[in-house]
Amino acid sequence: MGKEMRIVLRNADKIDPNSIDDYIKAGGYRALEKARGMERKALIEEVKKANLRGRGGAGFNAGMKWSFVPPAEVTYVVCNLDEGEPGTYKDRTIVQKDPHTLLEGMAICAHAINSKKGFIYCRGEYPYVVEHLNRAIDQARKKGVLGDFDIEVRMGGGAYVCGEETALIESIEGHRGEPRFKPPFPGVAGLWNRPTVVNNVETFANLPEIINRGYEWFASIGAPSYPGTKVLTLSGDVVNRVAIEVPTNTTIREVIYDFGGGIRDGKKFKAVQIGGTSGGFIPESLLDTPIDFDSMRDIGATLGTGAVFVMDETRDIVDIVTRIAKFFEHESCGKCNPCREGTFRNFKIMTKINRGMAAAQDIENMTLLCKVMQKACLCGLGQAAPGPIVTTLQHFRHEYERKLLA
Ligand SMILES: Cc1cc2nc3c(=O)[nH]c(=O)nc-3n(C[C@H](O)[C@H](O)[C@H](O)COP(=O)(O)O)c2cc1C
Fold first, then answer.
1. Do 321 and 308 share a domain, yes or no?
2. Position in ligand 1 atom list of the atom nearest CA 167
3. Residue 168: CB within 6 Å of ligand 1?
4. By residue range, what is the domain housing residue 300?
5. Residue 60 has what pLDDT?
6. How far apart are the first and last CA of the chain?
7. Ramachandran bin of 242, using left for φ above 0, alpha for ψ from -120 to 50, beta for the remaining angles
8. N or C, which end of the chain has less CB nearby within 10 Å?
9. Which residue has the CA at smallest separation from atom 18 of ligand 1?
10. How many domains does the chain have?
């Protein structure tokens, strides 16, 4: 039986999220004080040894990322709250339930990289979250807990690609949100060409407890290669459509059946897509895989943002993948050729298959196109867009073949 464990959601529903006093009473801002008493190098080392890996999708060690920031007069801390991934609402949940844990995490990072200025890039569809965050920032300023570090909230314009860290940086700078070539990475040349750390909300929100309790405590929780917990958001044909926080060695089956309460209306399970629109589709036979980053990658899937989209036996896989292909065609920013043309072409072929007008050769052509996109696209959008096509062809090929012309 899977068990919840709350680190980032430790205060959820226990404190008033609109009250900094409540947060402080619950032990808030103590970790920041402790971090400020540490040498910067030691603080980065602590986070590195905790092996806190990014919760925004790429799974990069946060301490390691911070360690790449060169000494500079001006550096920036950027929090990615773009949360454009369909089915994902974890970052909104964290911020709505406990905004100060994010602010404290960002201020800890600011001390580590000697930054005086932070930005929170908030999804355009979350205007109420912007308001909520501004209230919390105001309280923190008035209490003086942030010291000489200040945070500004910037609102996204509703483009999925703006969650990609360099497109996000372009957007904050006031340009059209398109990804930059890497290197240089933001850690060296980010916002206005200054060293910039970009981390996800959940990554920052883990920091206060890591500093309070020490890296050994954190590193011992869940899967050793991706320790800690993960906030997951359940949606689709599952009984409980909720946000949960579980240790990273929890299996997909436990997530769906112990926390999700199983499949709605007594129907049977068909597939689950984890990590958002670009996540791989997982069949019944792989449900005992733990949700950690590496185990998911090993089965050709992703942990991504932690969205868990459950599909019952009545779902038409080819139809769902066609809709996903439409999403990517719409959201491709068009900067690079393989993504602009590839997402367009994939959508065309998927539509052809879905309408019963395709031949076996169309599947072969699409498979080849997916391989090119995975290697040649400029950013993660195009590189990951083929994921649902590739994994459904692997596990649910018969559903495609059933729709081909005789
Ligand atoms: C198309 C695309 C969309 C993304 N959207 C998000 C997002 O909404 N939130 C997020 O934290 N990371 C998102 N990412 C990942 C970011 O580029 C980056 O890896 C992340 O913010 C780094 O934070 P982390 O190391 O704490 O995970 C996206 C990446 C791509 C390619």
1. no
2. 17
3. no
4. 226-312
5. 97
6. 47
7. beta
8. C
9. 165
10. 3
